[in-house]
Amino acid sequence: MRGEDPSPELxxxxxxxxxxxxxxxxxxxxxxxxxxxxxEVALAQVAAHLRVPLSEVWGVATGYPExxxxxxxxxxxxxxxxxxxxxxxxxxxxxxxxRRHGVAVGDTxxxxxxxxxxxxxxxECSMAPMIEVDGAYHGRVTPDDVAHLDRWFRAHAHHxxxxxxxxxxxxxxxxxxxxxxxxxxxxxxxxxxxxxRQRGRPALRLSVQMGTCGRAVNAAELLAxxxxxxxxxxxxxxxxxxxxxxxxxxxxxxxxxxxxxxRAVLERVTVAxxxxxxxxxxxxxxxxxxxxxxxxxAWRGLVPAARHPFWAGQERALLARAGAIDPESxxxxxxHGAYRALAxxxxxxxxxxxxxxxxxxxxxxxxxxxxTASKWEACRAAAGEPKYVVANGEEGEPGIFKDRHLMEGDPxxxxxxxxxxxxxxxxxxxxxxxHGEADLSAERLERAVAQAEEAGLIGDRVLxxxxxxxxxxxxxxGGFVLGEETALLESIEGRRAxxxxxPPFPVESxxxxxxxxxxxxxxxxxxxxxxxxxxxxxxGLGTPKSPGTKVFGLSGPIARPGxxxxxxxxxxxxxxxxxxxxxxxxxxxxxxxxxxxxxxxxPAALFDVVMEPRGRVSPGTGGIVAVPEGASxxxxxxxxxxxxxxxxxxxxxxxxxxxxRLLALIEEMERDAAADGHTTRANELxxxxxxxxxxxxxxxxxxxxxxxxxxxxNDMTGRS
Length: 720
Ligand SMILES: Cc1cc2nc3c(=O)[nH]c(=O)nc-3n(C[C@H](O)[C@H](O)[C@H](O)COP(=O)(O)O)c2cc1C
Ligand code: SF4
Ligand code: FES
Fold this sequence. Notes:
The protein is an alpha/beta fold. The chain contains 28 helices and 20 strands. It is 39% helix and 13% strand. Iron/sulfur cluster is lined by residues 481, 499, 648-652, 655-656, 693-695, 697-698.
């Protein structure tokens, strides 16, 4: 953009946005996408277009970490130094990148060729250590890779284009379906049509794991090579860009489906191995690959799932279809049972749905474990129209990456869960709020929404019934606090992400003062299973204190990092040792970071304690990072605390001032181990922060330090 002239390019980019404040964040994202950064004149253009005071546009533009007011170099690299990546050498990779490319961290080299930054997490911790280069993630990175960073440079150094919000704006013209005798009958017709189309497709399907995790280790290259190899060998097979089934450790992997064969997954497939693999598939002998098959006994050299260490202890309800279906196909989702629970719900009164969710005992999976049915009931009873359902897919807590797997792997399941929530609560609008960097989640959800609209699953008469619902996608722009429910509402309204004081609670006065239910992605993804398979079935999968299943992300230096779903009431021993395969290289476990920066390091001595909400060991939001003996407890606690201090929105003093002060206290302890009183001062300050902070960020920020002082006093104080 030249000088102070308004940019015609930007004018064009802004034109689709209605001139309302709610579009401020999407418009700023769009402007940044068009220009690479947000110069002052772009802010003025956005302000003029949306009729928002420039000072407030400035306030929002400087309030979200992903919005950039300054230009970057021609290329851009970010090296993750979050706990999982740090344990696998992230810090060394950052230093090596800086050294090799002659650029300081946080700086752009003198020739403006490269801007280098550190990052807190890319939310694909199973692929640690990770680097992002010109908007693309790379996983399992080695120091050698860093020496040849230029092979990852792109001609255009912007992030890949993000889906635009107005495409599915709040007042779309939804498809209308004819009145149906029942929603189930209308769905039967959709499923029958999908079945007819399916019959014309090849029997053999080869699905390359193209989740964000797979893409970080060259799955796109494998997919392209597979397309070529299948065409060259004239094999009648459908090649699909699939999703991750949770086996991130096995990426790049290929999932095979064929009538008469068990479902099968081949691990760590290389381009070089493809010709032999396709030959083997044509025969009936062993496939010459490692992997898993859903068969009673070993199948063509693959381990049966019931005996596979990653799978044997899992219970798949929410992740049942992830990896097994084409995440971009509504037909596939319908043929695997999607929208069956929605149809079932629509043929019954909304209160029956709430009763089912209540009977299931479902507790919110966003961290607070609040009973979902209570929220829904309160929203239904609240006065005010329209009502909203917001799916919280912000997931900005380092070490946690399960919601992205749910959104990428089975987007229709989330859409269905949100529609059922809307029906039950009396809402007519759903907003799917997706993290600003979770591009693939957003892309797949965007497509799912468009397909569902076209099929009459979203719109004026959902499945022909007297239920109208519009669904819209929104994107964040970074910041941990943005995931806090009221901060998220502020951002939708076009403001900085700062939590609101409560009461009133969102169920009474949420988005634009109207009753609003906000649920986590995992919570909403559980709804179709509860309504479809029964509340008692779901409740029976867990414990009385924690019914149902729980999805976890496993990372750190373990053999099988990935995303798993287990019956609630699991132990860390089962997750890390059995499913995750234990620490690599014969390392001994020191503990595990559970719950990211709002959590703490759980010592290995507690690995056999059943995890329950508010129990001795709480599952938190489901991020588990295994920590080996020899890792620095102080460094981990400092990483978590530094993150909380940096992410404080600044609204309340104890969090804004106290959290950095706690960090400084640790540094004082490190400098002067012999001095007395540090622990007492830390405890007093922590108590003040916990009691006087407005939101969960400040309230939970001191936890990691407090627990570490109790559990690892010598490591923390430097005394023996
Ligand atoms: C700092 C902070 C960050 C949060 N981030 C998220 C998040 O990324 N995703 C989420 O679902 N909930 C997050 N929450 C919790 C939400 O405020 C809210 O409790 C949750 O979305 C409600 O959904 P649930 O009842 O289904 O758990 C966060 C809370 C705090 C205090
Ligand atoms: S506790 Fe921290 S993040 Fe939360 S409102 Fe207060 S200052 Fe903001
Ligand atoms: S991706 Fe590096 S810590 Fe999460």
